[in-house]
Amino acid sequence: MKYDLTRFAINQITTPKWSMPEAIEGYSRNGIKGIAVWRNFLDDYGVEKTSKHLKDAGMWVASLCTSAWVNETEAAAYKAQIDANRRIIDQAAAIGAPCVVMVMGGLPKGDKDLAAQRVRIHDALAELAPYAIASGVKLGLEPLHPMYCGDRSAMNSITDVKGLIDELGDDATSLVADVYHCWWDPAFERELRHAGKDRIQTFHYCDWLVPTRNLRDRGMVGDGVIDFARIRGWLDEIGYEGPFELEIFSELNWWERDPEETVRIAIERCGPFVGPLKK
């Protein structure tokens, strides 16, 4: 069966064996014109080369992943990370990415003050908001599963993220919703409906495996316990018309496979949940 893949993008972290040019050509070769760019691949290939290659291949960009962390307790180091995020916003604008996915860091090394880190995240977003508006690039706020709170991000609740968007405004911020991080949350459906179609920037797919063997052991759609049909139904009822990204961290499986195989299976598994059958 052939599905409409118009809204489907693959996040580059799903196929880390491919360089930027290999990913652009590989996704495009399989009929996928959407890509979520990961910064290390962008830095390796260069912004100008990436921008030109994307245009030549007729690709569109769902997002740029990810921001610089702001889990710094020293004022100078914190400011350096704010400046780094401004440069990342510039990169996003240059390649046509509508948002930077904001993953802001967990607890600083040797620190246990979680409330203080959440204040840093709030203040950093508030400081970056005017720059994002001027650049035409939104700060894509992604709540991460609480198991990442200690190291990767202390922005964990979709309800809290929704509050940040309310405070900072739709011109500067939007919601990046990932089923892996939010499927378990009783507030997931309610907050998606409250956000509405215009506040959801992009929507991430992958599956929650049982058992999950480590923090980088996500599943391909259909291999775990997430009810994708139900969640896609919510989004259709909301009227969401944005992208669907496949984003898989998988040290024990998908990262070891041939990326061509991963892309082929991704189309088979994600097709029913990204677009209708082609007539």
Automatic annotation (TrEMBL):
Give the InterPro entries listed for this entry. IolE/XylAMocC-like, Xyl_isomerase-like_sf, Xyl_isomerase-like_TIM-brl
In what residue span(s) does the Xylose isomerase-like TIM barrel domain sit? Answer: 30-261
**Ribonucleoprotein is among the record's keywords:** no
User: What GO molecular functions are on record for this protein?
Assistant: isomerase activity
Residue ranges crossing the lipid bilayer per the database entry: none
Query: Which UniProt keyword terms apply here?
Result: Isomerase
User: Gene3D superfamilies given for it?
Assistant: Divalent-metal-dependent TIM barrel enzymes
Q: Does the keyword Isomerase apply?
A: yes
The family database entries (Pfam families) matched by this protein are listed as: AP_endonuc_2 (PF01261)
Name the PANTHER family for this protein.
HYDROXYPYRUVATE ISOMERASE, XYLOSE ISOMERASE
Q: What is this protein called?
A: Sugar phosphate isomerase/epimerase
